[in-house]
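Methods: example folding runs. The two proteins below were folded one after another, and each record is reproduced exactly as written to the output file, sequence line first and structure-token line second.
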Amino acid sequence: MLATSTSHRACMHNGENAVSPDGASMSSKPPLRRRRLARTLQKLREQNTELTVTDAARAAGFSQAKLSRIEGAHIAISGDDTDALCTVLGVPRELSDELVQLARQAKQRGWWQTYPDSILGRSTDLLELEADAVTEYSFTIDVVPGLLQTASYARTILRAALPREPDEQLQERLDLRMNRQKRIQTGELELWAIIDEPALRRAGFGEQVMAEQVERLAELAGTQQVSVQVIPDGVVHSALSTPYSLFTLDDGYKCVACDNLTGGLYIDDENEVQSYSDTWAKLAARALPFDESAERLSAIAEEHRRRTREPGPRPL
């Protein structure tokens, strides 16, 4: 199982609440998969106290400078070179195979790379996480998670964040967000969402938009790929003002993404990740059970839908 023991702050932005105002490109930063692999290889090499950096590099057929650049994620490493280095370091075959696979995945282009950097902005880490994850736990306090948003709801968020964005570019951002949902639709990703109830009653989106959005949540709740719980309005819990997502990847790697306006905190320290996991258990306990959450979603959707049918004020 792949794991690392350090936490990392990254300019990662999931865009559920807003969009990076400058649309800054992060293309100069090594891809997340490469950084994960580099940190793991460095950790394994440091654990092998019988080999110096020079010895490990020479035995694997590298120069010391190349190994240093690999460990710093400055250059990619091939699957064959990863296998050679793992052999030198005495890495168990199961873990070695996982690392070789990760090395090969790190060189593959992601589906999102068809979008320009001006659209991707700071979201590339999140997109890689979602591409590799098998489960995601998402807690939100003021919006619906991006993977569950309807197009009209997502468009409202994007337009509010970028009021001067040309329609064509805004549509590209919307397409990117909608394409993120495909792994749920294909059964590759399981999502468990816990949502604070005020996010489901936000009037600023418009009653029609909110009716469609909450109806969508009610339809998805309890399906094979999606679980939804609602924290009732007024309930005090251990993650007030702290939305976050907890990812488990297909190789067992776990990390947390905490969203904010201009970037985010990306955490993979095992102790810190466990703290967020413990907080998740407390959130789930404070939220309504799944069946009651589904009933609450249906009731809130009907409230929004009823208000769309109410006549507006008559002109004087």
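Second run, written to the same file directly after the first:
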Amino acid sequence: MVINCYYLFINEQIEWGVILETARWDDYRIAYQVARSGSLAKAGAALGINHSTVLRRIDQLEAAIGTALFIRHQRGYQLTDAGHVFVDNMPQVVEAFASLENRLVAADSDLRGKLVLTTPSDYLVILNPYLKRFRDQYPLLRLEIFATDEKLSLAAGDAHVAIRLGPKPDEADLIVKMLTEDQLQFCASESYIERYGELTRLEDCNDHLWVMPNGNKTRLPLIRSVLDHLDPERVVYQTNGFLEVYGAVEEGMGIGPVPRLHALRSPRIKVLNIKLDQPKGQAWFVYHRDVKHNVRVKALYQFLANTLP
């Protein structure tokens, strides 16, 4: 897509007007990724193209605008003064294009095309059976999923919908709806209970084996409420994801925290009735106000709200 427009950038006391006759939007997008990544190889990996294509598009953009955006170094690409102006203003441009695209998509009432969703990888395994049924209902839709713990920018159009866990998101311009309660519950497999007995009191926690998350997940209040009473030697398996915790618990390696929907789906594990101050967690359906009329987003929300337990 060729952009024929006039941009006026103001940086402190410098005004820079450039008529862009031949520059393409993809060139700007690629240059912005190079600025964020710091090298051609990293930018190419993020965009799914090879570094020679990245270099060619950078050269093409700089020739079109008659200004160098980068200084080439062996250590990577550094910004020129014009490059700094470019990076300072590009986020607003990206958001404007994303907003335009979302409004154009919203104008199409047919349930076909692509719907981009982001959610934590731990939660995707829960969603997949429901997404399959959603696709069965709307077979002309294509789903693209980003399974990550990072928060993608809905304003920049990184995704149409985010399903987030934990506290209610409060970023500006986001519409947030609760989907379901998804509190963690301590569980054990039937095979573990048969061998070691069933834990009913937190005071007896050191008589059992435990499967626990590590890293930042140990800060969760529910996890902390057990770890504070637990001998570290009783933790026999640690991992950075609740999906892996769930798998280890299901195999009988120990007692561990399992999301409620995982526990409901597995006939091999049992929720333990341990008296804890268990804060309830929620799953939130989040989207930018620019896509509030998008029929695909509306359809996905209505489907999940009506089918998730």
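Comment on the second run: Residues 81-106 form the longest helix (26 residues).
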